[in-house]
Design goal:
Keywords: DNA-binding, Transcription, Transcription regulation. The protein folds into two domains: about 90 residues, Winged helix-like DNA-binding domain superfamily/Winged helix DNA-binding domain (Arc Repressor Mutant, subunit A), CATH 1.10.10; about 140 residues, GntR ligand-binding domain-like (Four Helix Bundle (Hemerythrin (Met), subunit A), Up-down Bundle). About 70% of the residues lie in helices and about 5% in strands. It is built from ten helices and two strands. A hairpin with a 5-residue loop joins strand 1 and strand 2. It is globular.
Length: about 240
């Protein structure tokens, strides 16, 4: 699944154990990793995330101490996602460790990637690209759970970046989604933003299909701006509720 490729993508250099804890905790709390789902083993996690076994073990110990995962010993054992984590993990909510300024900065970075992807896609997109985008947006439109909506949304964004036919842009989008996915999952717990997002995706595809560069870039920017507006609003509500 594309969401797992995002969750387990390579980690940056600084505070690697903390980054792993934050990424996996966000994925668990927002439901991207489901209750009782088994994580890859330590060896595979180390390879996938580009860190040492010691770093992975330290991160898993922290997640275990916070009752987000549990370990089963034996031949069929491993690390599994705990049930009912939202009720006991308010201290690790994705909004707890980020500010509105951080969200604005993240939005600017994401907007730059997606709008430039739309710009290039409007020139380079093929009929096969358009067919794939339409298929992914239809899957998004028919999604019913927050997890399905988030996974479908990430797939749409990656497909858009891939339609630019720039491997670097597609890779940048994949890396950014490690932060983006768990935040979008929070928004999709309600239906407030979802219909508007679907409408923007549908309009964006038509702009790409007609090779309308200016409109495609405008719609791509509006798509990310919509997410950021609602994320900042939710962050402010979260801050007030915690205060």
């Amino acid at each position: 699944m594309i969401t797992h490729a995002v969750i387990f993508a390579p980690i940056g250099q600084a505070s690697r154990s903390d980054q792993i804890v934050q990424r996996l905790a966000n994925a668990i709390i927002t439901g991207l990793l489901e209750p009782n789902e088994q994580l890859p083993n330590e060896t595979d996690l180390a390879k996938m995330m580009g860190v040492s076994h010691i770093t992975i073990r330290e991160a898993l110990n922290t997640l275990r101490a916070n009752e987000l995962i549990y370990t089963v010993r034996g031949r069929k054992g491993g690390s599994f996602v705990c049930e009912n984590v939202r009720a006991k993990s308010s201290g690790m909510h994705p909004f707890k460790s980020i500010s509105t300024d951080y969200l604005s900065d993240l939005g600017e970075m994401h907007s730059a990637i997606i709008s430039h992807s739309a710009r290039l896609a409007s020139r380079r997109v093929t009929e096969a690209d358009i067919a794939r985008l339409r298929e992914f947006v239809l899957v998004l439109k028919n999604a019913t759970t927050p997890e399905q909506k988030t996974q479908s949304d990430m797939r749409c964004l990656l497909a858009l970046a891939a339609s630019s036919h720039s491997a670097r842009l597609a890779n940048q989008e994949l890396q950014l989604q490690a932060e983006w996915a768990s935040l979008v999952a929070v928004l999709y717990r309600s239906n407030e933003v979802f219909p508007h997002v679907v409408t923007l995706y549908e309009a964006l595809i038509e702009a790409l299909a007609s090779h309308d560069e200016l409109n495609a870039m405008t719609l791509a920017n509006r798509l990310i701006d919509t997410f950021i507006f609602h994320l900042i609003d939710q962050k402010m509500k979260y801050t007030l509720s915690e205060g």
